[in-house]
Structures are given as C-alpha cells and as structure tokens.
Amino acid sequence: MREFGAPQTPASLEMTHTDALTGLGNRRRMREKVENLADERAVDPAPFTIGIANLDGFKPINHLFGRDAGDNILSQVAHRLRACMPNGATVVRLDNDGFGFVLPLIFDARNAERLARMLKDVLSAPFDLGGRTVRLTACLGFAVYPFAGETFDALMDSADTALYRAKRRGRGQILVYSKEIADEFRRATELEQALRRAIMADEIDTHFQPIVRLADGAIVGFEALARWNDPDLGFVPPNVFITLAEERGFIDMLSEVLLKKAAAAAMQWPDALYLSFNLSSAQLVDPTTSVNILSIINRVGLNPRRLELEITETAMMSDPEMAQRIIDDLRVVGIRISLDDFGTGQSSLGRLRDFSFDKVKVDRAFVSEITRDRPSEHIVKAILAMCDGLDLHVIAEGIEGREQAAKLVELGCALGQGYHYGRPMTASAALRLLESLAPEDQQREQRA
Fold this sequence. Notes:
Blueprint: H1 10-16, H2 27-40, E1 48-56, H3 59-65, H4 67-83, E2 90-93, E3 98-103, H5 109-124, E4 127-128, E5 133-134, E6 137-145, H6 152-169, E7 174-176, H7 179-200, E8 204-213, E9 218-230, E10 234-236, H8 238-247, H9 251-266, E11 274-278, H10 289-300, E12 307-312, H11 313-316, H12 320-331, E13 336-342, H13 348-354, E14 359-362, H14 364-367, H15 374-389, E15 393-396, H16 402-411, E16 415-416, H17 427-447
Parallel strand pairs: 6-7, 9-11, 11-12, 12-13, 13-14, 14-15, 15-16
Antiparallel strand pairs: 1-3, 1-6, 2-3, 4-5, 8-9, 8-16, 9-10
Helix pairs in contact: 3-4, 9-10
C-alpha cells in the first residue's frame, strides 16, 4: 500500500485524471492541459480556446429510463465527442452531463462557433438504447485565451458564463464569451446586489389580483404577485428579478419575505377567500420547501386550507421525484396545488396522470383567443372536459373582456382571473375592494 504523502505512480496519477464512466479525462486533466498551454504561450500569448457543453433535458432520462440508460447515453456522447475533436484537442467529462474541451488550434470566436455547430449536430443524432432511441440537444459556451481570461479558473468562469447565457436562450444554443456578455453579466450582478439590498430593506411588495367565480363575478381568492420599484432602477419586471433570484440562489429568501407579506394580508380577508402563491422551480428541488412554507404560515396564523400554491410543469421537470414529495407533504396538511400555464408544456397530460393536483390554470394564450380562434376554443373545451373527468377545478387566466368571460361560462368554466375583473393591486386596495363589495355579497347570499 502506498504510504501517505508518497509520490503518486504514473498509473495512480492517470486514475485521478480520468473519468471512470466514459474513460475521458476529468476536470483535473483539463486544468493541467490549460495551464500547460498558458505557460507555453505566456511570452507570446497566441490564442487558444476552451469550451463547455451541457446536454439539454438530460435529468429526466434517469427518471424515465433508469440510471443505466443515462450512463449509456453519456458513454455514447463521450465516444462521439472524442471521434470529432480536431488535432491536438482534448475532451473531458466535467460533471454529470457536462463536457469540456481544450482547443489549442482554435484561435477566435468564428472558428469556435464553426466547431460548435458541428458538435451540436453530432450530439443531436438519435442515441440508441437497445430497442428505443432518444434525441437530445446541447448548449455550448466557449472562451478564448487570453481575451476571456489568462488562468484556468478565469477561462472556465468565462466559458460557464457564455454557457449560462446560451441556455437562457433555449435548447441547442451556442455562445462565445464576449465584451457584450461580460457587460450583461456585470449588469446582472449590479441588479442582484440591488435586489438583495431591497429584500433586506423590505422594499419588495406583494400585489393581489382577484380570482372570481365566473357565473356571478364573486371574488373567491387573490393571487399574490411580486412587485419591485427601486429608487434608482425604477420598476423592475417580476420575471426579471424573480428569475435572477432563482439563478443566483436566493429565491428562498425572496419567497419567504413575499409569502409572509401575502399571508399577513390574507388574514384580513373573509375566511372563505383563499391565497394563491407561486412556487419557483428552485423550490421544487429543495427538500426543506414544505417545512419552510408551513413554518411561515403557522407564524402568521394562516389556515393551510386557505393557501393554494401554483407550480409550472417546467419547474417540476428538474427533479420529478423531489417535486412529488414536496407536493405530497403540502397536500397532506390541506394546502392545495394548482398546475399553472397548463397547455404550454411538453407533456402536460402526463403531469396530470403522474402528479396530484387540485386545480389547473388554463394559459392566457388560449383564453385571449377564445372568441376569435376556433382551435383555441376547442382546446379550452377539451381541457374543461378532461379536468371534469379527473375531478379537477379549472381557472382561466388572462380574461380581458366581457366576451371572453361569457364564452368561458358557456363552455362550463367556473373560475377565472384577468384585467376584466381587476388588475393587481396593493394589499390595502384589495382590502378596500372587499369592504366595498361586502353589502353586495350579503345580498347575493340572501338571494341564494
């Protein structure tokens, strides 16, 4: 046995630099290659390029087909990449579905993009799993030395930033790190710092949009929506700062502040009204989510049966098993779960079969066209019929006019929300609205 501290043999050194599954080098091998290249070119810094590839939608493979199938695909990916590397290049496996490249003879962004397109095409060909095939895409990010960094860590950070921006654009995207990307990253960092300050200073607000019973327009609940008006930045759209909080890893802190405010506001409403609150994709892979939510509403005093949590199909796909566990933990105490943006995902019917939901929210894309577009009308009608058979309630989002509301009532939709019934409003405005409607509600109950 080798004594502690003794020099490693060539064989043991090779093992520490090799990925056991694919036989490719690993991150240590890539670091060694990059540092050697940088040393060679330090006096006359001729460019070279590094790259990172990440498979799109790989995580569900293990869930759908098993871990052996996932390992099989990763081995096939390694074989394809090794076969098409240019002379002198090195390919490594960095992590689960991430691969890295060291490209000594790729000197600029144009040639990096040309190689990336070829690699993307190679990886998009079907993968054979013995009787069935799977198609995947990949996003790729590249960084050119010395413009994007002069050390391994700096180059990897730049390539990772390019990859991250590529993935935000969608599947199968390619980006080479540039000044524009650096400027965008810097702006995002400045926005992150401002957002963190705003959270700590309690400057993020919750607004509330009514959810109504379509038959008579009676309010049955409110959806809580985040709003941020920064003294310097002005109004920052929620899709911008919520996405940023998810990406930078502090969505739990933001969500806790918002849920606490929303639950406190709901305590001022009649007990029959419920609060709808959105969960992020990051929260659906965090095993502490259910405990944190229950802790917040218990401290505020909100009955769990008055809380409804909205989740999207896309959010569930990162880790379906964990998402199901969180959903089950929440439903067992009486919290209801609503599937948001229904009809826009890749396999919504499968989600209804595999997960336990209480409600489905029909996406505004169908509702907005329901009076003008026959296919949209038939889609909504089919969703309503299907949900009726599954004993699921349906909420139509994005109702902006009387004609849409009337058509939804005609089709049998019971609940809805949209500008026709009220725009998002402050907590105090929502309370004033409820107080103004109280006599009307009493009359309605007497007539019933």
